[in-house]
Each structure stands twice: as C-alpha cells, then as structure tokens.
Amino acid sequence: MDAPGGRGARARRGTRSTAPRSRGREKGAARSPSRGRVAGEGSSAIATLRTPRTDGAPARGGRSARRAPAAREPPARGAAGGAEAPPVPRSRAPAARVPAAPGSDAAVPDGAVAAAGRRPPPAADALRLREVLSRLSLLREDVSEASTLVNTVVRHLVQAIRDRESCFSSMEQQSAGSYYERVKISEPNEFDIMLVIPIKQNANDSTRLQLDESDDTGAYYYVSFKRGPIERGWLKFLEEDGKLSASKMIQALRDIIKQEVRNIRGMEVTVARKKAGSPAITLQIKKPPLEISVDIILTLKAQQSWPPSTQAGLKIEQWLGTKKRRDFRLTPIYLVAKQNKREKVLRGTSNMDNRNTWRLSFSHIEKDMIKNHGNSKTCCESNGPKCCRKGCLKLLKFLLEQLKRKYPKELEKFCSYHVKTAFLHSCVMWPNDTDWYLGNLDHSFQQCLGFFVDCLQKSQLTHFFIPQYNLLSQEDKARHHFLSRKISYELNNGFPVFHENY
Questions:
Q1: Distance (Å, rounded) from C-alpha 313 to C-alpha 388?
Q2: Full DSSP string of 9-63
Q3: d(CA 332, CA 350)
Q4: Can you name the residues that pair with 210 across neighbouring β-strands?
Q5: Looking at residue 206, what is its pLDDT?
Q6: What is the pLDDT of residues 130-164, one digit of tens each?
Q7: Nearest to 373 by CA among 438, 417, 305, 468
C-alpha cells in the first residue's frame, strides 16, 4: 500500500523463496573476507572486500585513503546472446555511489562495509540481476487463478455490505498495491483492495468534509462534516465532538465481513486477527493449493482540493509533465482509516482502537504513475522502447524482502513502501527514458540503491506527496544505519542474499 505499517511483517510468513541456494554452496563462504568472492560463483564474480573504515568520513571524490585498490575484472565485450553490451546512457546525474556507512562496522556479522564509490559492475553482475529478475516474474496461469478467486470473494462481500449498512450503500471496489501495479514479485498470494465510500457534496456542491491536521506530518487528519444535513446513518459513527470515528467504521465493516464470509461457498474464507497499527481487515482465502491473503482497506473519497501539506509534493514536472501533475491534483482526495501513533489517546484511555484519525492515501495515483511511467508517451508500450523502471522496483522490493527474512528483528519496521518511495524519487532525479535503458538494468538499480542508502544514513526519506512528512523516524537511526550497511555489503559483493534461502 501507500505507507509503512500495512505489510511490514509479511516477510516472516514463510513465502517460498524464488532463489533457492545451489547444492554444495557454503553459506559462510559468502561472508568470508579471505575468499574475496561471492560463495558459489566463478572467477567472474570476484569482488575484493573493502577494509572497514573507522577513522571518519570517506575521502573526497569517492576515493579511499590508505586503502588497496579493489580487484577489477576486465570488462566483457559481449552481453547476453552475443550482442555487444550497449553503452551506459548519459544521465543528468552521476553514476550511483554508495556512501560509506557511518561509524565503526565492527558489529556487522559479515565484517564488510561499503566502499565510498562502487566501480561499474562487470557483465557477470548484470547477467545475474537479469536472472534474478526473470525468476521474480509471476506465471500468467497462477495470476489468473488467484485473481479470479479474490474477485469472487470481494464481489460477494461488497454486495452484502451495501445491503446491510446505509452509509456503505454506495461503496465501490478499487484495486491497489503491487499486484495491480504489475510489480508483484514471487507469488500472487497477497492482494490489496480498497473499499471506497464516496462522500456526497452539499446541495450547493460545496466541499463536504472538514479536515483538521492531527499532527505536524501533514498526513493524518481529523474528519468532520461541514454544516448541513447529515444522513441519519452517519450519526452513529460520529464522536461527541462531531469527528468521524475511523475505528467505529472499521469495526462495523469488520462485523459485517465476519458474518458474511460464512456464506461463501467453494472455499474457506476467514478474517484474521487485528494487526496493531494496520488499517486493514485481512482475509485468508484457502482453496488448495492456493492460500491467499487479502487486505481490505476502508477508504473515504471526496471531490475537494488537496490539503496545503501536499502543495510542494508530487514534483513530476520533468518526469511525467506539468499537465499530468495538474490532472492528478484535480482528482478526489482519498482518506484511509488509520491510527496515528502520535495522536493523544482520547479521554485518557489506553485503548489503541479508540482512535479517530484518517490518513491521506495516494495509492491510486502511485498505481497510475508506475503503470504509465515513461517520460515519452511510448515507453514500454507494445511497439515502443522498453525501460527497466519496473525491473528496478521489483529488485528493490526483493532485496528488502530477503534482508527482512535474514534479519527479521532488526528490520521489522521497514516495509515495501519505503523502497517504493525511494524509487519514485529516483524517477524524478533521473526523469528521461534514456536514463532507464533496458540494457543498463544494473546501472539503474545501483542508482536507486545509492539514493536509498543515502536516505537511510541521513534518516530522511521524504514522503513523495507530502514533503514535510519523513517516513524514517529519527528514533530509529540505529536501524536505518544497520540496513544501509547490509545493502552496501550486498551491492559491493554481487548480492549474495539473492541466492540464499531462508
């Protein structure tokens, strides 16, 4: 989805890895400085491990002081299929550099840290990335079967919800998330569905909802109705002060769904237990051999101006164009029922469900940008040139997923929305389609990773639509630095985690 918290812990569900370890490969060898190469790889994978720096910042210009030069493989003359490897396109920004992780790296289990600047990868690195990416592609028959099952369940539920609750009578189903953005990886076993309630305007077509910020992020709001007649069905969802209670509406929706899943035939459908801080009602669908998780997100939609906190966001003029940005900002605002951890608990109670905040959602726009991502209007169309933007996003998601499996406790607060946001910023930094030439997947992937690592080291990842909202809490700097070290090690050693199984 569109913010941390929705699927943060999903990597621990035991989803089958798409890159099993080869027989005979020793896991420890991948982290042995004495070997100087990634475990199980041939001579083309040689990568000298850098000596950890503990004496301050890296030298200027990406050079390392008092350090032996890294082993460098002679460049390959050909790419896959015998064709000559295409040159790296000229970009507005320099090639990605992975900043050195701050502080001493003595505590890092693998004993390796990032170099101040990574050299252009040999052809073998690029081929391995393409191999990994090919394994992440979903089989069409698997996707069709899973989506058919999900659509059957959701259509049944939506009809029942409309009939049972007057406020939900105009509810619409809207897809969201990586599956519908066509960047889902590994298996089609997780879906996000937004159940959208359109808010009718007043008789004079004026704005119906009053939005009041609940904190300084510009993302969370108290929602109330402006003066005017309110449909009777809404009254039971209002707090004493007139605010629309997100928790009351979620509970009403949850109760209806729990009753109605019993009437679905031909499969087993259950409602999972509540997840702390998650805005979703999660369904588990089982029809052997399929086991699918569906997140139901309660959403309000209102045709009114976006809040002031979004004014300086969505800087896509150089990427997708000024007209596209204007069109996006004319679309309705979406608000999802989401607890704000910083909100003071109402009436002095410690009940975490007694919250009434709503969070701005832009998942529908993110889906549009990722599906129609080209600076030119022909990028990745049937007869147009292909780019590697979606491939980079898939690899970013897979890298974080694999690292979360390896270090579940240290990385539990990270989710795919972090890398998705970093990817969108990367698309703005390198807006031209030539910056994402399909043959330079490795180069573009490095640029995205370099930007994300820099954000982690600064503990600053700006929300793409709300510039004042930092997605990386300053309280979690140690976790940010931990992840930056792990990513830097992977980047400088040919991504051994892609070939490990957990």
A1: 25
A2: TGGGG-PPPSSPPPTT--GGGGG-TTT-B-TT--GGGB-PPPPPP-SSSPPGGG-
A3: 34
A4: 224
A5: 56
A6: 888 887 775 555 567 888 888 899 999 999 999 99
A7: 438
